[in-house]
Amino acid sequence: MDHVILRPVTEDDLSVMELFLTDPEEASPFQWFGWGDTGRWRRQWAETGLITDDAGHLMVVHGDAALGFVAWRKIVASRSSYYWNVGITLLRDARGKGVGTQAQRLLVQYLFAHTQVMRIEADTEVDNVAERRALEKVGFTREGILRSVVFRDGQWRDGVRYSILRGD
């Protein structure tokens, strides 16, 4: 899929984002953690537009269609340094078409252009082969396995941490 862009979340986009909280099939097996607070993004959007100094969400868009979103959050490493942890969630019809790779590449470019971080990291489950490939295509380096890092669908699962540095 050509010409994917990222843009700020609009109020109309919130219904797309809420699908990931209300529809296990849209959330994908790697993003469904059970029922939760379906109003959280509306409250945060009303207060901050879902972009703050510590975290943010941008919509992944092709033409007029919202395909999902990317997100980042600040990880404080010391008094004088921090980095970003990023993630992506796509509607099932957008998966497997290169959208995730394009969107994550755009997010990395955006964060390096508009913040002073040296490092961006991403985590995914070991079994999420599509996400691992997408991160590697963007230029992320696999750093290692996080044993039993996430509880999903009744069991603890291993994760994989990736990072990309400003000079990579």
From TrEMBL:
Q: Which SUPFAM superfamilies match?
A: Acyl-CoA N-acyltransferases (Nat) (SSF55729)
Q: Which GO terms describe its molecular function?
A: protein N-terminal-serine acetyltransferase activity; protein-N-terminal-alanine acetyltransferase activity
Q: Which UniProt keywords apply?
A: Transferase
**InterPro entries, A to Z:** Acyl_CoA_acyltransferase, GNAT_dom, Ribosomal_N-acetyltransferase
Residues in N-acetyltransferase domain copies: 4-167
Mind telling me which Pfam families this protein's record contains?
A: Acetyltransf_3
Coiled coil location: none
Could you tell me what this protein is called? GNAT family N-acetyltransferase
Q: Which organism is it from?
A: Streptomyces sporangiiformans
The root-end lineage is: Bacteria, Bacillati, Actinomycetota, Actinomycetes, Kitasatosporales
